[in-house]
Design brief:
14 helices; about 375 residues; two-stranded antiparallel ribbon; 22 strands; RNA polymerase II cis-regulatory region sequence-specific DNA binding; Ikaros_C2H2-ZF; elongated
Length: about 375
């Protein structure tokens, strides 16, 4: 491998005459330093070493004289070829003294070191936001300029960052290159795999500063934090209703469009939200994944479990605004409320007897027809 790289370097010739100027600055002359600067004839960028100028010049010519013997991939720089070659050998010569993690690339190793020191060397001139990586700063800076140079060939959607476009394009190809070693579940985004893997390890690295509740995912922590601040940053353009969660806003919008994009594979019934579809699907499987810690009773959905749990705690969070009577379940409150709302309407036309529920009135009617 080393021999092929060396031979490629020796064979490297340039047909283009590069203007090289040797400049000694006044300060260096005063100090007796005879330093030669090498200047690019195309963009006038200066270098202290000719090898650096040669490397830079290939960015203009797109020349790639170094190629990998194993896969044929070409590179403009010898160090890039060496770095690439480690993907074949799986060599990781850079090791972190703090956590032992190893890297094949020195740049990635240096970036990783900042995760321990929390060092953020790159700051935005506009808003002073700080970043540990230079390309994160560049990506952030485009949010101020609203520049979106990367567009999807399939749907035309534009992105400020190339990696975001790459991730987005998988919604068209349905590509899921990241799979869980434990259960085999596949994901289109690497961060989603990392979050999923914590369901196996039960790791919850993100905790709420207010109540101490722990979460496996930072976005879930952010969503939870709004329950303390009552912040609702997402609002509906149609009716103005506000939501603390973006996914809840998306589901709400379906109530205006009457769109039901989620359908049951078993019976074909359609739903406006995925949550409702998942809850419905349990009626086919008879699955009851939510169990009471006190008595062990199982339930098909979380809301029924919460309602049941109040029977143990004697908690009655739902109260009637008319008479103040309290209930442990909302549907019991709704049923009770009919006794106030329909007091005059639920009466027998024949004998004027009154009823709280329509089904009781209908049953009563049959006593007259049998006479």
């Amino acid at each position: 491998m080393e021999d092929s790289i060396e031979s490629s370097e020796k064979d490297l010739t340039s047909d283009v005459c590069v203007k090289v100027s040797y400049i000694a600055t006044d300060m260096q002359a005063l100090n007796g330093i005879d330093t030669k600067f090498f200047t690019c004839g195309i963009c006038t960028k200066e270098f202290s070493q000719k090898v650096n100028l040669d490397r830079h010049y290939r960015t203009h010519t797109n020349e790639k004289p170094f190629s990998c013997d194993l896969c044929g991939k070409e590179f403009s720089d010898k160090s890039c070829l060496k770095r690439h070659y480690r993907t074949h050998t799986n060599e990781k010569p850079f090791s972190c003294d703090t956590c032992g993690k190893k890297f094949s690339d020195k740049n990635r190793f240096n970036v990783h070191l900042r995760t321990h020191t929390n060092e953020k060397s790159f700051s935005c001139d506009v808003c002073q936001a700080q970043f540990s990586q230079k390309h994160h700063l560049y990506r952030h800076f485009r949010t101020h300029q609203n520049v979106k140079p990367f567009s999807c060939d399939a749907c035309g959607k534009e992105f400020s960052d190339k990696s975001h476009l790459k991730v987005h394009f998988r919604v068209h190809t349905n590509e899921k290159p990241f799979s869980c070693d434990t259960c085999g579940k596949e994901f289109s985004i690497k961060s989603h795999l990392k979050v999923h893997f914590r369901t196996h390890t039960n790791e919850k690295p993100f905790s709420c500063d207010t109540c101490g509740k722990e979460f496996s995912d930072k976005s879930n922590l952010n969503r939870h934090s709004r329950s303390h601040t009552n912040e609702k940053p997402f609002s509906c353009d149609t009716c103005g209703k506000e939501f603390s969660n973006k996914s809840h806003l998306k589901e709400h919008i379906h109530t205006h469009t009457n769109e039901k994009p989620f359908s049951c594979d078993t019976c074909g019934k359609k739903f406006s939200t995925k949550t409702h579809l998942n809850r419905h699907f349990l009626t086919h499987t008879n699955e009851k994944p939510f169990s009471c810690d006190t008595c062990g009773k199982d339930f098909s959905n979380k809301s029924n479990l919460k309602a049941h749990f109040s029977t143990h705690s004697n908690e009655k969070p739902f109260s009637c605004v008319t008479c103040g009577k309290e209930f442990s379940r909302k549907n019991n409150l709704n049923r009770h409320f009919l006794t106030h709302a329909n007091e005059e309407s639920l009466s027998c036309d024949i004998c004027n007897k009154e009823f709280s529920y329509k089904k009781n009135l209908n049953k009563h009617y049959r006593t007259h027809t049998m006479e």
